[in-house]
From TrEMBL:
Transmembrane segments: none annotated. The keyword NADP does not apply. One of its GO terms (biological process) is cellulose catabolic process. This is beta-glucosidase. Plays an important role in cellulose degradation. Shows hydrolytic activity against several glycosidic compounds.
Length: 478
């Protein structure tokens, strides 16, 4: 058991994202996003739902803050809907004052309750107009400038925000949005799923553009706002833990490393080391864009902190064939059962997620070592529960499975700090059940139950009251 290793002011709390909770897609001048459009395409969302109502948080900020208070949270990570603030999205398009005011007031309300806001500028809900106008994330020249303008509008309006996340999980926007097509805008080479897209090239272009846009926004923050506002800014990357399927096979060991490079180092190596990983250059060749000197000057050194989203782990098996053109994993397969028969963890409602706290600990140290012990904020961590949606309310509220997940992962985090990682915060995903993207509402990640049939009423689950007391064991008292 780790001791009291976390700073006295360790920032723990809960996280959400705009499209997943807000609803009110047409209210007070909000423009449509690519997710509004994507949800309307039949077959894209499991239960044919959308974020049209979601948790109705646009009308219930006071309830959301009351929930945070009830958990004792010190911080809240939420994201801004770009198309609420700039409905058409572009740098020459008008700012929607009502949309901006909504977030400014929300930040004030959080601070009035002693809750520190951590603001994500982009959690996947690109203004639809930018996609229609010039191809959205694919258009480096236009999109980077529009994002920079949007970021500046927010930095200027919210000087009280001290923690900024430029992007949530660019891997997801790039791969799920432009390779598999599971997420908006749904591009893929698979013509049964989409009339447009090239899975072999587009994700790598989009990933590149994310890095340039991130670096540009960070430069703006550091030059124009940080000297007075004194905040921190970074990007949030997703990454699952890895174990070689056969630890005795050097090719599986190498494949496990490659999996981390294709998911995490794709973005983190340019930011911390100034270039893409060698394994990606070797497999992707000229499909991986090159940084111009001006671009890499923007990207390298652009993180004040490393934002880490983490949920699960996999066993990794190398492939013996040549990489396929649309491969994005690094020529390997992922699974939950090891060669010796070990199961990585119990099933959840999410096909991709099985709890494995050791994988979190090990990945925290992998990131720490590879990037010279950066300050890390864990910006998401949590689980769904198998069959939760079908349980009666009192069973849902007694979510011991999720509570145990948090105990295990928080202990693993404290152990990683004891072992040398520099971790200053943790946001559980999620404050409440919400729109789980392509999986709709059936999969719940909340520490609060949201009654979608009963007027979006919220009920705290057991796990909401476990996160704080678990952290208390590891936080220094002075
Ligand atoms: C987070 O991503 C998101 O930031 C958050 O919005 C979401 O609600 C939360 O997870 C729970 O899902 O096999 O191709 O379908 C977590 C990282 C990476 C997890 C992609 C799901 C599925 C890949 N995600 N992964 S695929």
């Amino acid at each position: 058991m780790p001791g009291q290793v976390l700073d006295k002011d360790f920032l723990w709390g809960f996280a959400t994202a705009s499209y997943q909770i807000e609803g009110a897609p047409e209210e007070d001048g909000r423009g449509p996003s690519i997710w509004d459009k994507f949800c309307k395409i039949p077959g894209k969302i499991a239960d044919a739902s959308s974020g049209d109502v979601a948790c109705d948080s646009y009308h219930r900020t006071a309830e959301d803050i009351a929930l945070l208070k009830a958990t004792g949270a010190r911080a809240y990570r939420f994201s801004i809907s770009w198309s609420r603030v700039i409905p058409l999205g572009g740098r020459n398009d008008p700012v929607n004052q009502k949309g901006l005011d909504f977030y400014v007031k929300f930040v004030d309300d959080l601070l009035a309750e002693g809750i520190t806001p951590m603001v994500t500028l982009f959690h996947w809900d690109l203004p639809e107009e930018l996609d229609a106008r010039y191809g959205g994330l694919l258009n480096k020249e236009e999109w980077v400038q529009d994002y920079a303008n949007y970021a500046r509008v927010l930095f200027k309006a919210m000087p009280k925000v001290k923690y900024w996340v430029t992007f949530n999980e660019p891997w997801c926007s790039s791969i799920l949005g432009y390779s598999t097509g599971l997420f908006a805008p749904g591009h893929t080479s698979d013509r049964t799923k989409s009339p447009i897209g090239d899975s072999s090239t587009e994700p790598w272009l989009v990933g590149h553009n994310f890095l340039i846009a991130h670096g540009t926004a960070v430069k703006i923050y550091r030059e124009e706002f940080k000297p007075t506002d004194k905040g921190q800014i970074g990007i949030t990357l997703n990454g699952d833990g890895v174990y070689p399927w056969d630890p005795e096979d050097p090719l599986d060991v190498a494949a496990a490393e490659r999996k981390l490079e294709f998911s995490i180092a794709w973005f983190a190596d340019p930011i911390y080391h100034g270039h893409y990983p060698a394994s990606m250059k070797a497999q992707l060749g000229s499909r991986l864009p090159e940084f111009t000197p001006a671009e890499i000057a923007l990207v390298q050194g652009s993180n004040d902190f490393y934002g880490m989203n983490h949920y699960t782990a996999n066993y990794i098996t190398h492939k013996t064939t040549e990489p396929e053109p649309n491969d994005f994993l690094g020529n390997l397969t992922t699974g939950f059962i090891a060669k010796n028969g070990d199961n990585i963890g119990p099933e959840t409602q999410s096909f991709w997620l099985r709890p494995n706290p050791q994988g979190f600990h090990d990945l925290l140290l992998w990131i720490s070592r590879r990037y010279n012990f950066p300050t890390i904020y864990c910006t998401e961590n949590g689980t769904s529960v198998k069959g939760e949606n079908d349980l009666p309310l009192e069973k849902i509220l007694d979510d011991e499975f999720r509570a145990e997940y948090f105990r295990g992962y928080i202990t693993a985090l404290a152990q990683a700090v004891e072992d040398g990682a520099d971790i200053k915060g943790y946001m559980a995903w999620s404050l409440m059940d919400n729109f789980e993207w392509a999986e709709g509402y059936e999969t719940r990640f909340g520490s609060t139950f949201v009654d979608y049939e009963g007027g979006q009423k919220r009920y705290l689950k057991k796990s909401a009251k476990v996160v704080g007391p678990t952290f208390e064991k590891f936080i220094k008292k002075e």
